[in-house]
Amino acid sequence: MPFFMSPAALWGLLAISALAAVYLFRRQARDVKVSSLMFFGRRQTPAEGGRRLTVPQTPFILLVEIAILVLLVLAAANPRAITGEKLIPVILILDDSLSMGVNAPDSPKAAALKYIERVVFAAPSTRITMIRAGAQPEVIGRHDMTPAEAATMLVEWRCHAADADLFKALRYVTESFASDVSVLVFTDRPAEKNSEGRMQWLSFGRPLSNVAVTAASRYALGGADRCFVEFTSFAAEPCRLEAEILLPEQNRLIESIDTMLQPGETRRVRFVINETALAVQANIKNDPVTFDNVAWLLPIRRVPLDVAVDISSKLLQQTVTRAIEASGLAKVTGSSSQLLFTSRQTVAADDSLWQFVFKVASQPAAFSGSVSLDKIHPLTAGLPPVRAAWAVDSAVRAEGQVLMSAGTVPLLEVQGRPEQNLTAVFNYTPEYSDLHKSALWPALFYNLLAWRQQFSPGPAAFNFRSGSDIAVSLPPEVERAEILSEDGSSVAEAVGWRRQAVFPGLPPGLYQVRAGAASWRIAVNLCSAKESDLRAAGASGLPELPLPAETMLNFADVRWWFIVPALLLLALHQFLTMHRRSADAAF
Amino acid sequence: MSSLKETVSAAELAGQRFYLNVSSRFSGLQGGGRFGRNTGNSLEFVDHREYQPGDDVRHIDWNAMARSDRLTVKLFREEVSPHLDLLVDASLSMQLDGSRKREALYAMTAILRTAAINAGYTVSAWIVKDRCRRVEPASLPIHDWPGNDCDFSGNIGQTLVSFPPALRPAGVRVLISDLFWKEEPQAVLRQLSNNAALLVIVQLLAETDILPPLSGNVRILDCESGEAVEVVAEEGLLREYQANFTRHQEYWKRSCTRAGAVFTRCVAGSFLHEMVPEELLKNEILMARSR
Fold first, then answer.
1. Are β-strands A199-203 and A182-187 bridged in parallel, bridged antiparallel, or unpaired?
2. Is A530 inside a domain boundary?
C-alpha cells in the first residue's frame, strides 16, 4: 500500500469529473431525421424485427482516459511504498580527553558508560557507530555494529587524549554519514551546541577546582638545557600552590614553589640545567585532582651523527666541515655509515647510508638570477632567498626530485628514499661561486643533518603531549616496536612501515620504547589548560530515550508503478482512437 | 394546409403552360376522341408519301400511281383516347421534417394533372399507402383529396406489388415517389408497366436526401421506422452515403430502361422555386404549349 508524499495532488482527481462532463456534452448527439437509413452502410437488423435503437453506451475510451488520469494523478502525489525495515543508525561521539576519566570511579566516563549501557544498548533495532573524539576523530571497531559488538569495543574508549575536538568529530559525521542518523555526543563539557534535529549533546561530570601543570618544555642551548614549566590555577577561589621541580635520578631539588594563586593565575618557572642527560620532573603536591599534577622533561639530545667528508676541492672541504660542526648535530669522522659528503661519482652504498654528492664542473656556467625552491621539502624548508653567484655544470640533467633549479638546470635534487640510501646531488662549483659565504649555506646543511637524524633509530622526540602520535624510526632489520610502561608491562605494539612505527596517543607518564635490541625513554605530558579547566564541567539533563523506539521504515519511490501503466494505456488509447476513426469511416 | 393549397394553386397555374405529350404508343389501337400527333386510322387525310414495305396496302393511292407510275400511300391522322394514372407516394418519408417534399409532391401532381387535361387526357389519381386508394373524383382540389397526408410508415414498393391499383390499359402512368424502399424495382416496374402505354417514374427528393446535413456526433433517425443510429459524422460516412444513394438511383435507372419506363428526377426545393419539371420536359413527357 503506497503512501503519498504530496497528497494535495490527489485533488487532481477532480479532473475526472471535468473529463466526464466533457464526454457527456460531447456525446450529446444531435438528432437528424432522414428519409431512410438504408444508405448508411450495412446495418444489422434485429432478428425479432421492429424498431432498432442504438443506445449510446459509455465508451471504452472514456474508461481508458479516466484510468490514465487516475494513474497520472497518483504518480503526481509522489507515492512511496514500504520496502522493508531498517535499523536505526546511531553514532556515539565519545569525548576521548583525559578529563573524562577524572575522579574515578565517579568519573564522567563511568557515568556515560552507565548511560550507554542502560539507554543506548537497550534500544531495540539500533546499529551503532562509535567515534572516539581526540585530536582527530577515529572510528572504534567498525561502522554499524550491533549493541553487543559495540559493548565489547567500548574498552577502546581510553580517554588518553590531551584534547578532544568534538566539532571535528561532528564535521566528520556530517560529511560521512547520512542525514537521518541519530548522533549522541558524550562529554564532560557543557553543551556548546544546542541539541537540534537528531543530535543530542549529553554532558556528564561536575565542576572541580584544579591546579595543573599546563606547559613544560626543554630545549638544548649549547652545553646546557633550558627548561620551562607553567602552573595554572583553575580553582573558583584563591588557592595555594605547593610544587617542586627536581632531578629524580639524583634526587636533587631544583626549585620548590609555595605560593597563592588567584583563580586563572599562572606561575611560570624557567631554569637551566647542565645535566643534559638527566630527566626533570615537575610535581604539584597539594592538588587532589591528580591527572595533571606531574610533568616529565626527559633529555632531548640525540646521539650526534657520524659524518664523513670526502671532497677533492679544498675550499669545499673546509666550508662543508665548518657548516657540519656549526650545526651541533653531527661530528666528522673518517668513515661513516650514516652520511657521506663527496665530490666523486655516486657509489653503491649501504642500506642506510646517505650521500651528498657535489657536481663540480670543469667548465662551469655562473649566474646570479632567481632560483626555484621547493619550500615544503624538509631539505629546503625555511631556506633564505638565494643572493649569491652560483657556478654550475649546465650539462647536468635531473634524475630525481628537483628541489632547487635555475631554468632547466637542476641545482639540488634528491634520489632514492630517505629511509634507505638517499642521495642528494648538489650542482655547485665553489671556485666561481660565493653561495658558501651566504646565510643559505649553514641552513641547508642544518636541514640535511636534522632530516638525516630523524631517520636515525629512535623516537621522533622524547617529550610528547598526551594524545599525539608517537613515531619511532626503527633500526635496520627491525620490523616492529613496542612501548612498555614504567613497570615493564607492554602498553602498545606497532609494526613498522618504511622503517617507521607509529603509536597512537598515550596517557601521561613515562614509557620505554623498544625496537629490537635498542630502547629509548619517552615522556608523555598532558599540559593542556583546556583539559585541566574543570570549572565548567557539568551534567546536562539526560533524556530517557533519545532514540526512536521503533525501527525505521524503508520507503521506495514507486511513481513508476503508475507512470508505466499510464504510458501503456496511452498507447492503447492512441490505438483505439485510430481504430475508431477507421471504423467510422467504414460505417 | 394553407401552404399546400397555395403551392398547389401555383402549380396548377404553372401547369397551364404545359401539355402532356400524346404518345405514339396509342397508334394502332381503337379510335378515340382526340387526334394524335402521328398518322393513324382516322378519316382525316394528312399527306401522301412513297410506299414503304409494311405499309397497309389499303392506303395505296391507286389514282396517284396511275398518274405517276409510282406507289404512293395516303396518310391519315391518328385518333387517340389518352388516360393518365397518377400514383402518389404518401409515405412518411415524403413528409420529411425540414423539407418541402410533400408540397413538391402535390405540386408535381397538380402540374401533371393540369398538363394532362390540357392534352385531352382523362386523369385518375391514386394515393399509395398500405393500399392504393383511388381519388374520386380526381378533379377534386388536391388539397382536399382524402388521405393526402403522408403518414404511411410501411413499404410503398410492397404495396404496389402486393396490392396493385386497377389501372386503365394503354394509359400513361406516372409514379411520384422518393423510391426509398427496399422492394426490387423490377417487380414494381413490371406491375406498373403491364398494359401501359407509357410508364414514367418521377423520383422526388429533398436536398437533404442527396446530401444529409450531418456533422459531428449525430443520432440519425429514420423518419419512417423510427430506427436510430448514433454515429460520428465524418467525411467517410458521407462518402459512403452518397455512394449508396447513387448506386440505388442508378439501379432504378437501369431497371426503368429495361422495363421501357422513363426515369426522371426532381429536387423539391429547386422545383418549387421555378415550378418547371425540367427532366419531364427534357424527356418530352411534358411539352410547352404555344401561346
1. parallel
2. no
Residues of A in contact with B232 (CB under 8 A): 584
The pTM (predicted TM-score) of the whole model is 0.49
Domain count, chain A: 5
Q: Does B100 share its domain with B125?
A: yes
Residue A462, domain extent: 458-525
Out of A125-129, A265-269, A489-493, B171-175, pick the least confident.
Answer: A125-129
Q: Do B223 and A35 touch (CB under 8 A)?
A: yes
Smallest CA–CA separation between B151 and chain A, in Å?
A: 13
Question: Residue B60 CB: number of other CB atoms within 10 A?
Answer: 15
Residues in Cβ contact with B145 at an 8 Å cutoff, skipping those fewer than 6 apart: B125, B127, B135
Q: Are strands B216-222 and A30-34 parallel, antiparallel or unpaired?
A: parallel
ipTM over 0.85: no
* Contacts with B234 (C-beta within 8 Å, 6 or more apart), sequence order: A581, A584, A585
Phi, psi (deg, nearest 5) at residue B108: -65, -40
Beta bridge partners of B75: B47
- How far apart (Å, rounded) are the C-alpha atoms in residues A299 and A89? 49
Interchain proximity B240–A56, CB inside 8 Å:
no
Domain enclosing residue B170, as ranges: 2-23+82-288
B217 and B137 co-located in one domain: yes
Interface mutation target, options A37, A58, A576, chain B, most CBs of B under 10 Å: A37
Chain A contact set for B236 (CB, 8 A): 584-587
Cβ–Cβ below 8 Å for B182 and A27? no
Contacts of B216 in chain A (CB under 8 A): 30
The three grid cell numbers given for residue A211, joined into one nine-digit string: 591546579
Residue B42 confidence class, pLDDT cut points 50, 70, 90: low
What Å distances lie between residue A275 and A224, A225, A240, A243, A325, CA to CA? Answer: 7, 8, 30, 21, 22
Number of domains chain B contains: 2
Contact B255, B189 (CB under 8 A): yes
Is A377 domain-assigned? Answer: yes
Contact at CB, B220 and A37, closer than 8 angstroms: yes
Burial class (CB in 10 A: 0-12, 13-18, 19+), B273: exposed
Residues in chain A: 587
Which of chain A's residues have a Cβ under 8 Å away from the Cβ of B104?
none
Indicate the SS3 state at residue A486: coil
CB A164 within 8 A of CB A95: yes
In-domain check, residue A278? yes
Q: Tell me how far CA of residue A354 lies from CA of A342, A425, A447, in angstroms.
A: 11, 11, 14
Q: Which of residues 32-51 of A touch B (CB under 8 A)?
A: 32-41, 43, 51
Dump pLDDT digits (tens) for A169-214: 999 998 888 877 888 899 988 876 666 667 888 888 888 889 999 9
The DSSP secondary-structure symbol of B128 reads E
Do B222 and B282 lie in one domain? The reply is yes
pLDDT tens-digit readout, B81-122: 788 999 999 999 999 888 899 999 999 999 999 999 988 888
Q: Is A54 on the interface with B (CB under 8 A)?
A: yes
Task: Note the pLDDT tens digit of each residue in A427-454.
Answer: 999 888 888 999 899 999 999 999 998 8
Residues of A within 8 A of B105 (CB-CB) are none
Nearest alpha carbon to residue A412 among A453, A444, A454, A387: A444
- Interface probe for B, chosen from A22, A24, A32, A582 (most Cβ of B below 10 Å), is A32
Chain centroid to CA A146: how far?
A: 24
Q: What CATH number did the domain enclosing A397 receive?
A: 3.40.50.880
Residues in chain A within 8 Å Cβ distance of B100: none
- List pLDDT tens digits, range A536-561: 777 777 776 666 656 666 778 889 99
- Return the pLDDT at A44: 41
